[in-house]
Amino acid sequence: MWVIRMFFALLFAALVILIDLPLHLITMLIEKAKPGSCTRFRHGFARAAMKGIWFLAGGKTTIIGLENVPTDRPVLFVANHRSIFDIILAGSLITYPVGFVAKKELASTPLKIIMEEIHCLFLDREDARQGLKTILTAIDYVKEGISMFIFPEGTRCKVEGTFLPFHAGSFKIATKAKVPVIPVTIVGTGDLFEDHYPRLKWVPVAIEFGEPIETADMDRNAQKELPDRVKALMEETYKKNSKLIGLTEQDQE
Length: 253
Known about the structure:
- There is one protein chain.
- By secondary structure, this protein is α/β, with parallel strands linked by helices.
- The protein has helices at residues 2-33, 39-57, 85-93, 112-117, 128-143, 172-177, 220-244; strands at 60-64, 76-79, 98-103, 121-123, 147-150, 181-187, 204-209.
- Strand 3, helix 4 and strand 4 (121-123) form a beta-alpha-beta unit.
- The longest helix has 32 residues, at 2-33.
- The two termini are 27 Å apart.
- The mean pLDDT is 92.
């Protein structure tokens, strides 16, 4: 059964890429005449693609707190990271333009064109100067009205139920642009795919969008404490939602 699911998910992804090639050329010509006019269309197309992939390859999903996401201003989404499906799940749910900060390796895949169209940035974790440039570009995007989504752990955590340290630099996107932070806690996606690669499993998954944490009036001490504050909040949310979807302690080892 998992082979069939994988086949149709990959087929759908390939069709998305093929369809996007002419769309890319058409929207590029329109953008030259009227910059920004195709932003919502491009993001809508990408969101529809992610919805399709999640429908074909994702798990039974519990969605909490989507009403906490402001629709009238940009925000910084901050999430824990266990699976490549984290991006697909979150991206399928956010209904307005949002760019993802992804690892630089994805820039060498056929997904690059689509990702760049929706303001995704590719982070080189080995190059501090390039990393700073990426963060500064993300700040500019947010100031222009595009929300950003980042995984402050910097890479996927391989152990269910644990979080890697949060990189403080990620939060500068919010504090410098003076926008809220939305904690996004994802549970169970590792068991969907990575924990038994290349098999796909139909497993329960939970995603919770926390209440906005305002940064506009934060002093330096509060900004410094922000990464630990968000991490602690997400760890508590993770424990709560693990019980909600029936994730056992053995599953988290």
